[in-house]
Design a protein that fits this description.
Layout: H1 2-14, E1 17-25, E2 28-35, E3 38-43, H2 93-113, E4 115-126, H3 130-154, E5 156-157, E6 160-167, E7 174-184, H4 185-212
Parallel strand pairs: 4-5, 4-6
Antiparallel strand pairs: 1-2, 1-7, 2-3, 4-7
Length: 221
């Protein structure tokens, strides 16, 4: 029975969503950290109440201590010699490139594990001239059409709601945006462990090459 409870807890932790929620409107941006079912607001930060100034009484006041006089140093006292600064030496670029490639592979794999749970965008176009407003309306939808394939390539989008409206009375164009970007704890740990495993293999290969004294350029493809 205990094993089933343990497996159940591990399963719930693995599917626990972690991420960020961003909302923007006329009142500004609101950023929240997603920790499972809990959302913690980080922007705007909560204002701390001002501390009340307490008047110090005569008993609370401490007597001022007299400053200590510096000790006189004799003229014959030996001056300490400055310690030599060790200059940092760079590592060979041939050993560095495989590690960079491993990092880029991790970032690409990590990006594909991210998920857009909710993407909402509402653009309200302003303008008094119907012709110019119609032209801008078409350009806005063209920009949305170019942006969506990129987002679908980068992330997995579960829910999206994009609108473009026209307002002949408004004096300026406004936007309302909201997105929830998350990744499960299991996916995050899997990506991190995969990166660490690949980085360890590369490190051992570099170490073995140094011991063998080989000077050939490592294969970074």
């Amino acid at each position: 029975m205990g094993w089933w409870i343990t497996l159940g807890i591990l399963f719930l932790l693995a599917i626990l969503p972690l991420g960020v929620s961003v909302h923007y409107n006329s009142e500004g941006a609101v950023v929240k950290i997603i920790l499972g079912p809990v959302k913690i607001t980080v922007v705007p930060a909560k204002k701390k109440p001002p501390k009340e100034k307490k008047e110090k009484t005569q008993k609370e006041k401490k007597p001022k201590s007299k400053p200590n006089k510096p000790k006189q140093v004799g003229a014959d006292a030996p001056t300490p010699e400055p310690k030599p600064v060790k200059k940092e030496e760079g590592g060979t670029i041939l050993d560095f490139l495989p590690l960079v490639k491993t990092l880029f592979d991790f970032l690409g794999d990590f990006r594909r594990k991210l998920r857009l749970d909710n993407l909402q965008l509402k653009l309200i176009m302003a303008g008094g001239d119907p012709y110019n407003l119609a032209m801008n309306y078409g350009k806005a939808w063209a920009a949305v059409g170019n942006l969506l394939p990129k987002l679908e390539e980068w992330f997995m989008i579960r829910k999206r709601d994009i609108e473009v409206e026209c307002d002949f009375v408004a004096s300026k164009t406004t936007v309302i945006a909201h997105l929830d970007l998350t990744i499960t704890l299991g996916r995050l740990l899997a990506a991190v462990f995969k990166f660490l495993f690949k980085a360890l293999i590369k490190f051992l290969q570099i170490k073995k090459k140094r011991k063998g004294g080989a000077n050939n350029e490592p294969d970074v493809t």
